[in-house]
Write a structure and sequence with these properties.
Elements: E1 4-8, H1 14-26, E2 29-32, H2 46-58, E3 76-80, H3 93-101, E4 109-110
Parallel strand pairs: 1-2, 1-3, 3-4
Bound molecules: flavin mononucleotide.
């Protein structure tokens, strides 16, 4: 197992494509952050998704993910996610915050 991880969150599939390419080029492991309650990935329903994202942002929501990911095992983590207008998608925020909050991130290099 390599000591690098590509961690990504994607609804429409774009971040997934990029994450897979990075994993291919670096040889890193790759894991997806999968929400317990999936988002609607139908682009025709964009306005509804925007409403959900806005509500999660306003309430600083931390929605559950399907499985705990073994991020402690890695020295380097590449994180990929879509740009959402209200702010970082709720499911990726805990990972970004952990960077600041958790001691075990000390010494980790972030890309
Ligand atoms: C709720 C929502 C908000 C978005 N806000 C922005 C934005 O502010 N700026 C931007 O360039 N793209 C924005 N987008 C477009 C996404 O960043 C773009 O579709 C991205 O490729 C989606 O990544 P994914 O395919 O991995 O889900 C938004 C998309 C959604 C669903």
């Amino acid at each position: 197992m390599t000591n690098e991880l590509v961690l990504y969150f994607s609804v429409y599939g774009t971040a997934k494509i990029v994450a897979e390419e990075i994993a291919k080029q670096t040889g890193a492991d790759i894991r997806e952050i999968i929400p317990e309650i999936p988002y609607d990935g139908n682009r025709d329903h964009y306005s509804a998704l925007l409403g959900v994202a806005q509500k999660e942002h306003d309430t600083d929501a931390r929605p559950a993910i399907k499985e705990k990911l073994p991020i402690e095992e890695y020295d380097r983590i590449y994180i990929g996610y879509p740009i959402w207008v209200p702010g970082m998608a709720a499911h990726i925020r805990p990972y970004a915050n952990w960077r600041r909050r958790q001691r075990y991130w000390k010494g980790c290099r972030w890309k």
